[in-house]
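Researcher: Re-running this chain for the archive, since the previous output was lost when a drive failed. Same request as before.
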Amino acid sequence: MSAPRCAISLLYCYLGLLPLVLGFTAASIHAQEEHSDEVVVRGTTLRGRVVAIESEGLRFETIYGEGPILIPFDRLEALRTEGDYSVRYDKGKEARGLIWGIEDLHLIIGGDLASAERIPVGSIQSGTLVKDYKASFIQHLRTRYPHWKGSLDVGYKYESGAVDKKEIEVGLNVERRKEPTRLVFDFYYALETTKSEDKPEVKTKDEFRGMLLGEFDLGRKFFLFALPAAEYDKPRGITIRTFPSGGIGYRFVESKKALLQLQVGVGYVYESFVNFGKNDYVCGHVGIEGRYDFRRGVTLAGRTMYLPGLRDPSEDWLWRTEVDFTVPLVDPLALKLKITYVNDDNPAPGVGDNKFTTSVGLALRF
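Model: Regenerated structure tokens:
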């Protein structure tokens, strides 16, 4: 087919799809207008939908644009919803009904105005539209357990040719933050096999990492921490390595959307290598952890941890760095890019001390 005919065919195709696109857009606008909540912010009335109620304010999506915005409670002058909401507050209590307004930093919610409850906004943990709460199991979990969050990551790769390769990666991260404690469980496993016509199937990757972080607040900024961790990496000759540590930490920033903290302490490393025996030593611990949530659910998170041997840091050490970049697709699914850098005291000369890994996969966020 000639270029002009191809262009004309594509034009007819797009023109044929135009009514469908316009109809979908009109239906979306109509559906949004059917549920029209109102908020008044500093004298300006906004119409749209209350997407979520958080400890810091309302997530509100206007009819004038895309994406929810966070409106702090202290900026709200009036509020009225058309749908029933479920709001959890004050260590597990729940209130349901229409939201009738906000007065003296108290959210007014109930079946009718006369019997509505007045909830201090400082005690609110989470809230969502009742019909969304009932329709989505993930949303049900988020509302019922506001102090918990997690991500299940899965990646798979298959390559067929002169050499057949199969690789699977599984990761799980679960976090619970409720003052004065914070708990983080992180698990990762990867397996890769290769096979060719003249060689049997062999494992080119078989590695595991597990970590449990516990923190206890000493005040607004300082906290105690304990971090037991273990790993193995059979292709690199590491049959087992454990490196528990503990100490004191300092939070520079902690909010709903950002975290930046420093950890300093001491630990102990025990490691066993294929053909190179065992090794153990007392070590220091210096760690930095950070997270930032951008608009529309995009998240950048990272952690680095350096454990130098106290007797001879040039002979014994561990260094771990992980960076995650997550982009939401369709809630609760997201696309995650994971970058990992490992540097340690591996004695195998053919393996080396460094290992740099990048991977892309799907994440189920809950």
